[in-house]
Amino acid sequence: MVQIAPDLPLTDNCHHYTRLQDVPWDIQKYWKSRFKIFPNYNDGIYLTDDAWFGVTPEPVARKIAEDIPLPVFPTEYYTTASYSPPATTVVDMFAGAGGNTIAFALHGYFDRIISIERDADTLACAQENARISGVGEGVIQWVHGDCFEVLKELLRGRTDEGYIDDDTIDPLDLKNTVLFASPPWGGVSYTSQAVFDLSTMEPYNLQALHDACYPLPHALYLPRTSDLQQLADLFLRREPESVHVNGEVDVQSEDTETPLPPESKLDVVQYCMHGFSKALVAYYPADKEELERRAQPCGE
Ligand SMILES: C[S@@+](CC[C@H](N)C(=O)[O-])C[C@H]1O[C@@H](n2cnc3c(N)ncnc32)[C@H](O)[C@@H]1O
């Protein structure tokens, strides 16, 4: 069972810097952009020093929150209606200081927001930032732990057995959940490569992230220079017919004339601010056969 984290106290590692001279030199450039990252910084936003390197700027997080409620099954796979409603649970695997989680909560679409962070100080900042950003009590279910372990537990699926108390996360409804992952990128070494080799990303490379999130639909927040071919290859291993990158490239085997179902597309979106990309997000759809298999109640 996965426990909901209590409200954690801010510690000496959580800072709300107000003067440049107090800011460590290596994060000064980020602090100077603090109002672009958090327009409400002066309301009392807290970050650990490490969190500055990875936080998603608010305008980007807001746009992702608009884009991410995608149908788990975009076709008539489970319903006879031509429209499948988008997933209503989102799991933010790497909460950080809360940039994306807060945007998911403020967007108001999701019924359930589960946000996982393994560093207690960073989680305390995220909780505080959510509070001062106007996110209501209990809207976000925070989890203090390793997202890979937590996800394994959550992916066991819904059971009707046993009593689930208020401090425990209800297992996921697998047909109704989308995952968001903004992992550490292993420092800024990606900026020195024209095309970033995602197999070298540390501490978790593309394959490790995909393996953890599969078979749920998952949005991966990655360096803007990420190797699109590697993103596509991962997808092609599952969906041999096509790949659709950045809404432009559509590769299809020559012997098929039939239009491809929408879930056969991999959307990769660059998120820009002031004309420059901050990151890209690859939106991997669900693997419907595997998901259906896992979502079956035992014995069926
Ligand atoms: C790039 S930051 C996420 C930033 C976040 N999206 C935001 O806007 O603030 C990555 C975060 O993942 C956390 N992290 C790294 N490995 C983790 C793991 N295995 N489980 C949970 N959290 C992890 C780090 O402590 C860090 O805070």
Task: Walk me through what this model shows.
This protein is α/β, with parallel strands linked by helices and 300 residues long. It has one domain (20-295): 3-Layer(aba) Sandwich (Rossmann fold), CATH 3.40.50. Helix content is 26%, strand content 16%. The protein has 10 helices and 9 strands. The strands form 2 sheets. A 7-stranded mixed beta sheet has the order 3-2-1-4-5-9-8, sandwiched between helices. The protein has a two-stranded antiparallel ribbon with strand order 6-7. Helix 4 (58-67) packs across helix 5 (99-107). The longest helix has 13 residues, at 120-132. The two termini are 24 Å apart. Residues 51, 54-56, 94, 96-100, 116-119, 122, 146-148, 182-184 line the site of S-adenosylmethionine (SAM).
Helix/strand-derived category reads: alpha/beta
Radius of gyration over all CA atoms, rounded:
20 Å
Strand order of the largest sheet: 3-2-1-4-5-9-8
Q: How many domain regions?
A: 1
Order of helices and strands: HHHHEHEHEHEHEHEEEEH
Which runs of at least 5 residues are low in confidence (pLDDT < 50)?
240-260
In one word, what is the shape? globular
Overall number of strands: 9
Average the pLDDT over all residues and give the rounded result: 86
Characterize the main sheet.
7 strands, mixed
- Work out the helix count: 10
Q: What CATH architecture label applies?
A: 3-Layer(aba) Sandwich
Q: Which cofactor or ligand species appear?
A: S-adenosylmethionine
CATH class: Alpha Beta
